[in-house]
Every structure is written in structure tokens, then in C-alpha cells.
Amino acid sequence: MRSPQALRNGENPSPHRRNSNFSTPSATPHHPASHFHSTVTVHKLRRFNSLILLFRLAAFCFSLTSSVFMITTNSRSSSSPHWYDFDAFRFVLAANAIVALYSLFEMVASVWEISRDTTLFPESLQVWFDFGHDQVLAYLLLSANSAGTEMARTLRNTATCTATNAFCVQSDISIALGFAGFLFLGFSSLLSGFRVVCFIINGSRFHL
Q1: pTM given for the model
Q2: Cα–Cα distance measured from residue 23 to residue 46, given in angstroms and rounded to the nearest whole number
Q3: Which of 55, 111, 113, 206 is deepest in the core (most CB within 10 A)?
Q4: 21 vs 100 pLDDT, higher one
Q5: Is the pLDDT of residue 7 over 70?
């Protein structure tokens, strides 16, 4: 009922005022699905980075072993050929050594990213740095091993491999290991390229 004072003043009671003592409980929304989605994304990103780390490790091992095999092709006899007597074999050694050092650095960057959930460099720089160097060094390693293969074939048709067969065999092993290193560096290049595409489309190095 309206009070006499309110009737005299011509006021109408507000329905909101009557309901002011009744408070509607507000429920705080929870988003468990969003938290689950974020957790799944982190796990997928870590598995993806672990796969890249595995390819980096394989490229490092093969390239380093190729360099060691090429260096140790030196014959005991001074009249026998040495790896530094051939430009193609020097190219093979240099390319594999560069790829081994680069792969070692990328392994450190991958471990950093897996353990801290962030890139070693700023994200935009990191994705382009990885992709660009993967491309350049993959072509460098392919060119070097191709040149080494052609030189090894040439030596097979000469008296060099007849007199010192161990030199040619060890050179062939070094080149084969270099091609294996190129293969895993190529796999790494595909994954780093995927990260670049995701960064261009989504602004993030991962698609989720």
C-alpha cells in the first residue's frame, strides 16, 4: 500500500523499489572447456617441438659424423691422396660442419622452447630465422654432397681408388652420411615452414 505521505506528494511507488530487498544470486561462469582446450594446445605444441628437436638431433649427428669421416680419410702415406686435395671434398666437409653447428644451436633453441614455453628470440624473428636458415643450409648441404658424389665417381674410374681403396670407401661413407643429414634437415625445414605459415595466418607459430 502507498503511504499517506506518498499520496500527498503524488508519488507512485516504483516496482524496482519494492523488489530492492530481493537480490538475485549471480553465478560466476566457469569455463572448464576453455581450460581443457588450452591444456591440450600446450601438450600438442610440446609434442610438435619435441619432433623438431628429434630431427635437429638427427641432422646434427649425421652431419658431425660425416665431417669426422671426411677429416679422417687422410692416408698414412704422404704420396696418397688427402681430402683437402679435392675441392669437392673440402666443400663436403665445410657444409657438414656448418650444418652440425647450426643444428646444435637449434637444438638449444628447441630445448629452451620446450622447457619455458617461449622462443629463444622474439617469435616473429625465431620462425623466420629457423625457416630461412633451414632452406639455405639444406640447399648448401645438397650441393656439397652432390659435388662430392661426382668427385667420388670420378675417382672410381682412376687408379686412385685402386691404390688406396680405403680412402675412396671412407669418402663414400662421409658423403652418404651427409645425405642423411640433408634428409633430416629437410624434415626440419618442412616443420619450420609450417610454423611460418601458421604465424602468417594466425599470428602464432602454432595452428591452435
Answers
A1: 0.75
A2: 47
A3: 55
A4: 100
A5: no
